[in-house]
């Protein structure tokens, strides 16, 4: 396992990361962002778990499109890729990564 999460933080646009609450320790990082990273494919290098506190915009993981709901737990494994699509409505963002 990598010793820090700089490689992941560098993938997040600065304007989004600057407004993201981050809790980072040796083996785990928790991010509580205010916005989604839209239309930027991200490849997961470690296991990722996303807890949705609101209904997020549609996303494509691998080749499959999903519309998750409030309360969804999204699990991704190393090598998975995710692309979040633009909002169809303007729901507030609430999720933990």
Question: What can you tell me about this protein's structure?
Answer:
By secondary structure, this protein is mostly beta strands. It has a single domain (about 5-95), classed as Sandwich (Jelly Rolls), CATH 2.60.120.10. The protein is about 10% helix and about 30% strand. The protein contains 2 helices and 9 strands, in the order H-H-E-E-E-E-E-E-E-E-E. It has helices spanning about 5-10, 15; strands at about 20-25, 30, 40-45, 50, 60, 65, 75, 80-85, 95. The protein has a 4-stranded antiparallel β-sheet, with no helix packed on it. A 3-stranded antiparallel β-sheet has the order 7-4-9, with no helix packed on it. A two-stranded antiparallel sheet has the order 1-2. A hairpin with a 2-residue loop joins strand 5 and strand 6. The model has no long low-confidence stretch (mean pLDDT about 85).
For the residues shown, what is the average pLDDT? 85
Number of helices: 2
Structural class: mainly beta
Q: How far apart lie the N and C ends?
A: 18 Å
Question: Nearest-angstrom radius of gyration?
Answer: 13 Å
Query: How many distinct beta strands?
Result: 9
Q: Which residue ranges are poorly predicted, with pLDDT under 50 across at least 5 consecutive positions?
A: none
Fraction of helical residues: under 10%
CATH superfamily: Jelly Rolls
């Amino acid at each position: 396992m990598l010793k820090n999460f700089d490689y992941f933080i560098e993938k997040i646009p600065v304007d989004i990361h600057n407004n993201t609450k981050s809790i980072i320790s040796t083996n785990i990082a928790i991010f509580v962002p205010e916005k989604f990273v839209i239309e930027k494919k991200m490849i997961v290098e470690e296991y990722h778990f996303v807890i949705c506190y609101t209904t997020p915009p549609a996303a494509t993981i691998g080749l499959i499109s999903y519309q998750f709901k409030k309360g969804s737990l999204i699990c991704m494994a190393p090598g998975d890729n995710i692309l979040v699509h633009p909002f169809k409505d303007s729901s507030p963002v609430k999720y933990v990564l």
